[in-house]
Amino acid sequence: MMSMNSKQAFSMHPILHEPKYAPLHSSSEAIRRACLPTPSLQGNIFAGFDETLLQRAEALAAVDIVTQKSHPFKPDATYHTMTTMTSMTGTPTSSASHLHHPSVLTSHHHAHHPHHHHHQTQGLEGDLLEHLSPGISLGGMPTAADVASGASHAHSHMAAAINHAQHHHHSHAQAVNVHHSHHALAAHASLAAAAGAAACDAEPDPRELEAFAERFKQRRIKLGVTQADVGSALANLKIPGVGCLSQSTICRFESLTLSHNNMVALKPILEAWLEEAERAQREKMAKPEIFSVGDKKRKRTSIAAPEKRSLEAYFAVQPRPSSEKIAAIAEKLDLKKNVVRVWFCNQRQKQKRMKFSATH
DNA sequence: ATGCATGAGAA
DNA sequence: TCTCATGCATA
What we know:
Elements: H1 51-67, E1 77-79, E2 105-106, H2 145-149, E3 163-166, E4 174-177, H3 206-222, H4 227-237, H5 247-254, H6 260-286, E5 300-302, H7 305-317, H8 323-333, H9 337-352
Antiparallel strand pairs: 1-5, 2-4, 3-4
The structure holds a DNA duplex.
């Protein structure tokens, strides 16, 4: 088995999004029912009705229900927790924190399906949910991460901006950019170089990526660093446009549960960290003097098993339900429309992840 | 390790 | 709105 080829063909563009400003957009909340014409689907038999589809899907779901059981839960189970962070122990299992969303690597694009719906009128709904802003924190570098941080110190700052694009003559564009807000730094250029490698850069080889991920994990563990440590330590590398990443992302990288593009974009960064960390460790070995020392809560809705099964059934029939269908499903399952919409989005994303996509 | 969520950017 | 990259909260 060695086939290589990424199936995603993206493209073209040399990228670059200019540091745009974030227009403010308020997140859309929910739109409730409206009347809508027709969900034009592409040759789908089940194209435009609702009840029938829903019932059918549920019937399918029912099959599982027999086999599996869980208790029916509240439709709106959201957990909130007050997070009190402040727990940094020496043990590797820490967490990282950062400022805003350091969103950052992007590349994508490929054109795909032309689907779209119509306008739905009205969208209002008093929603209880709102979002808040993050609290900042992160003061010093605690413990465990000497290696992680590559021994260098952090001046606590995040960077911000820039966006870098890489494109050669090929197809693939990777861009690492951070959203900046105010100032921007200069830009520069070497992402690939950071990898310290010879190659120019992108290698769409699932093989290579998989191998790297494996090695990465292995060496990371050997260094005694946790995924969270790696994530926060990335900021210390000061690679233009690269801030820190969460434990989640590192974990997903190692387990290949990221999109191909994302894997490709992250690889050079993590590779750079790895080298730096190993270098730092060697340095430390030399002199055993070591270290001196050492909100808003987001709510996570919990969709009960039965509802989840129904959603899966609907998804099997129609992965991209129209707004109206989403509303119908939401109502039927007694879930918020937005929850259902997000569920579908996440489901679609899952399908696209690497792991064993196919070409592999 | 993963589920659900947010946000930017592009349609 | 959707996709994508990411992250907080959780199990």
